């Protein structure tokens, strides 16, 4: 028995994955290709992707938002979990990375669900608000440049409906947020962001210690 979250060693982590993760072949292939990429550390963990897909199904998500696509694993997980009429607006700035994503979205048969916007995410989110899409998204996932987190969160909060969910990745930052000897700019931004979100009475939050830390923020009615 334990009254706090377990510290997973490699053996226990392998057990967790082998007894939890059900990964369609197309997702496994994308994850394996991404593992060879020079920026492979930007890939979310398979157990996190499955957890997010479960949340999408529980919420009955038909309209979702993603800030930070990379090679498209999380977007593919979400798109596969949504019904045929589901729509995911995916924001990124890299044609190179998202070219890989497009290939797997097409292979999985969900390309028509994903509206990829190659532009600065803050611009895309602002355009969605100006187009009258505030309070209309069921789910948002933020996993992009850490300096932009406060801006992305505020814009996503305007776009998500009451009762909708915002998931924010990397909030534990490999433990650096809790290390007083670490003072680089990205860590400092994440610390301030975590503190602000903890005190934000517009949402109900839970910081889940999965992968690199995932904060869930449900917008109050």
List the helices and strands and how they pair.
Elements: H1 10-18, H2 25-34, H3 46-59, E1 63-67, H4 73-81, E2 87-92, H5 95-108, E3 114-118, H6 121-130, E4 137-142, H7 149-159, E5 160-169, H8 185-198, E6 203-208, E7 214-219
Parallel strand pairs: 1-2, 1-4, 2-3, 4-5
Antiparallel strand pairs: 5-7, 6-7
Helix pairs in contact: 3-4, 6-7
> How many helix segments?
8
Instruction: Please count the beta strands (DSSP E, at least 2 residues each).
Output: 7
Q: Based on Cα principal axes, name the global outline.
A: globular
- Low-confidence stretches are none
Give me the Rg, rounded. 17 Å
- Mean pLDDT equals 96
Q: What portion of residues belong to β-strands?
A: 15-25%
Termini distance?
37 Å
Query: Main sheet?
Result: 7 strands, mixed
- Helical proportion? 40-55%
**Helix-strand string:** HHHEHEHEHEHEHEE
Structural class: alpha/beta
Strands of the widest sheet, in order across it, are: 3-2-1-4-5-7-6
